[in-house]
Amino acid sequence: MLLLRAGRPRRICRLVTAGSLVLLGAVVLPPAPAGAAGAPGITLAKQAPASVLAGKSVSFTLTAANPSSNTSAVPEYNVSLRDVLPTGLSYQAGSTTPADIGDPTIITNAGQQTLIWPDAFDLQVGASSAISFSTNVDNAVLPVASTILNTGNGYASSAPRYVPKFTATGLPIADARVQPATSNQTSTSVTALEIAKAEPSPEAKLLRGVHDHPTTYTLTTSNTSKSSTNAVTVTDYLPASEEFLGCGLTDNTSGGAVEYPGAPRLTATPAVTGCPTPASVLAGKSVSF
Question: Which is it for strands 147-150 and 186-191: parallel, antiparallel or unpaired?
Fold first, then answer.
């Protein structure tokens, strides 16, 4: 250490340390690499739906974690999240959850929005936290058959009192105390049709014995509100353990045989209201309407 006091002679010390540059009166250490402030940083994962019906909003979830599996992990502070929306998407006001995080700062460049949630939360070792938000889709820019690709960014500080900073255009400002993380890329297809399948068992389990316990599946097909869709074919693939029985009142089991002596006939099965007649049944496993 070099000590200087007014009115007294200077004392010059020599310090020799491996990997250091030695000068008379001063020691200059090699600069620490950016982001290596003694903390490994966070991980970031992003979720989005595989498809979205044209005219509906798209929701995203960003999950930041500080994995305890990293033996050098330390608490991370002031985690800030950033998302550059693809052209054609815009933030849906008031959609951020948890609500106490609030809407992001929105920076628009050439019609493209950059969303920034500064100082969203801290992460202790082994902890994770997430935010979700929704976006509106401009179908003139992203029509049916478009693919929406999106990636998020996270920034954590090793210093409790330092919050990651960004430029006026939304770019992160490099700082040795800040460790960045980039999420996986999500892919969402814009579709004209949406189909949902439901089965009424409250425990999501089917009982054995179709003659005693027939099950009715409901297929709901939705069309985009933007335009009509014609000549739609709906195909349902049944598991190997199931057989298509029709819409009730008719026994369609193979050979008309019951499963065991005394089993009830399916002719007593109530008819399903509004059940369409399938155009084809392939090998008893694929049903097309």
Answer: antiparallel
